Amino acid sequence: MKTLWSRVLLCVLAGWCVLLNACQQQQASAPPPPSPKVTVSQPVVRDIVEWDEYTGRLEAVESVEVRARVSGYLQSVHFTDGAIVKKWALLFVIDPRPYQAELNRAKATLEQAMARHERTQKDFARAQQLVKSRAISEEEVDTRASDQREAREAVQAARAAVETARLNVEFTEVKAPISGRIGRHLVTQGNLINGGTAESTLLTTIVSLDPIYCYFEADERSYLKYVRLSRTGERPSSREVRNPAYLALANETGFPHQGYIDFVDNRLDPNTGTMTGRAVFPNPDLMLTPGLFARVRITGSGQYKALLLPDEAFGTDQTQRFAFVVNDQNTVEYRQVELGPMSDGLRVVRNGLKPEDWVIVNGVQRVRTGAKVDAERQTLPGDHVLATPEATVAKP
Predict the structure, then answer these.
(1) Tens digit of pLDDT for each residue in 81-129?
(2) Domain boundaries, given as residue ranges, for the chain
(3) E strand or H helix at 264, and its extent?
(4) In this structure, which CATH number among 3.40.50.170, 2.60.120.10, 3.30.160.20, 2.40.30.170 belongs to the domain 52-61+209-299?
(5) DSSP class of 396
(6) This model's pTM is above 0.85
């Protein structure tokens, strides 16, 4: 019985050996796997300008709190809340009757002063004639001369009082000091208005709309970069030159609004470590409204020639970025690269590649360093095109 089982076991082992030998012969005779197919392209060479983006807030160039300059009861309101008003447009009317009465009184006082002045002039003239014949004394002449001077000064004071009263009557009509969009009226008809003091009643507000400011803050590193670029002549200082700026609202694509930087603050904010800048934008359609958040883009470099490739061409090795280059023997080479911002959908390559290198842009995951590949060469669109700052978006 044991001899029978031994024979069966030997037969099974012999069969396995024959099968294993056949598999090894089949593998030895099978052809090697084909080289992976990849797509390679040379970097696009383009003159670009890098742009830095910041979040800003729109502010009115002019903002006015409309307050009364005289006190009285509000008689009427002459605007629609939220409307566009022109400069010197009538907004409110305060009851003018008390001030008109004061003007009339001042005018009457002026007439009295003028009559007295006329009389004293005649008295002084007669005194000058009478003193020659010694009909009156020198003292009397001096008295009449003094009366004439007092009358003349009284006329000047009365005229000033008339002008003051006339201004008060004029101030009963509250007019728009600037053109822009007005807010709601904060006081209704019939209320008593306190005017002409530091606690004057706030009636409404007006903000100008065209042009409009956008304030933004740049971090300390960016500010130092702009200073360096200014010193090397690559980018002029925004304190001296109107560098271009572009703006987009939250619901806009691209940067359709073009303006320029007109102000840079004189110190960094010690609390935030940022420098405040300001750009001004035309706003003829009044779409830009004070208080809105916006994205603002400013020049972040001088114009330079850059190499660009799609982001798919780059891999990540821990903290390093790399690309695979195919040499003349279709062998893959590893290149460590330093990348820059995006420009028209392509990534700027600062270091690590040359314009004549053929870089794998499709199939990076299927290759390794030193492997043979079947490379299909492809030209990226936009090669050797000069891009203007308005058309090129170079951002992180």
Answers:
(1) 999 999 999 999 999 999 999 999 999 988 888 888 888 877 767 777 7
(2) 37-48+304-395, 52-61+209-299, 62-94+175-206, 96-171
(3) strand 257-264
(4) 2.40.30.170
(5) -
(6) no
